[in-house]
Amino acid sequence: NPTFTAPEVVIKTTFMFSLVVNDGHIDSPADQLMVTVYPSKSPIFNAPTNQIVDENSLITLDGSASSDPENDKFIYLWTAPSGITLSSNTISKPTLLTPEVSKDTTYTVSLLVKDDFQNSLTCQFKISVMNLDKAPYVINPIENISVDKTAPDQIIDLQTVFADDDWGDVLSYNFYSNTNNQVVMTKLTGCKLALSFSTQNIGSSEISIAATSNGKEAIAKFNVEVKIPTGITSITGDQKLRVFPNPAIGKVKVELDQVPAMGMELIVTDINGKTILRQVIHQKEQWVDLTGNRPGIYLLKTNYGDLNVQKIILR
């Protein structure tokens, strides 16, 4: 029972052994045995180092520096855990998109290289994915509001308007702007936005509300229109509109014979037709404040076409 120690080879090599036996007189025919010796050195991996990256980042894993001592062809075998999807498991440089995470999370990826004969050792490395704080956003925009000037207050729950996907983040709400608080008044209490509509003035306003978390904010904007109710009682009989003093400084007094039950809209424009003031009156006598406007000629009219336009001279 002879033994044989295979030599080190760099390529697959076949050795032939012959056996002849002799009975003291004559040799037997030779019996031949073929022994194939394969290279004994396994491929050598060269895997990426541990990485720290942000969520939703596209990264490339580079194992291209791996080699085989005998220059045999070899393949790559990458293994990724749940949550990580590689572009390929068998190429030298696969890519992956890091997932969104609710907190910093570490994933372990493995690389093994394999030739026709042997496998390399398995190399493991870590990819640490960092959670990024995201800004809040508007999930349900506030629809524009159009109401009569006698409308009751409205309450908007801002928790239904804004959202924040980061676990544990708490939204705070802030009043941003109201372009016309003469027609709509706002009050913010916690997450509740209260709107109170003027009973005297009509017009429109743009309202902006902000939601904030960790220094990042989202803004929701909407428009509010306050208008004269439909079905206003008509003026009957002879109606006269008087304005005095005229010329005036700042304020003028408007006097009517009668006023509809739901009020009458007064409109003041400059001579170019630009609206300077809109005001609803409910009494036969009403002061109209034009303070702050330039001296000149202005026109006063109402939403009733049968009343004459009055000329106002401001000094």
Explain this structure to me?
The protein has 315 residues and is an all-beta fold. It has 4 domains: 40 residues, no CATH class; 80 residues, Immunoglobulins (Immunoglobulin-like); 91 residues, Immunoglobulin-like (Sandwich), CATH 2.60.40.10; 74 residues, Immunoglobulin-like. The strands form 8 sheets. The protein has a 4-stranded mixed beta sheet, with no helix packed on it. A 4-stranded mixed beta sheet has the order 10-17-16-13, with no helix packed on it. A hairpin with a 4-residue loop joins strand 20 and strand 21. The chain starts with 12 loop residues before the first strand and ends with a strand. 18% of the residues are buried. About 2% of the residues have low confidence.
Strand content: over 45%
Count the beta strands: 24
Largest sheet: 4 strands, mixed
Question: What's the structural domain tally?
Answer: 4
N- to C-terminal separation? 131 Å
pLDDT averaged over residues: 86
For this structure, the CATH topology of the largest domain is Immunoglobulin-like
Elements, N to C (H/E):
EEEEEEEEEEEEEEEEEEEEEEEE
CATH architecture of the largest domain: Sandwich
Q: Tell me the helix content.
A: under 10%
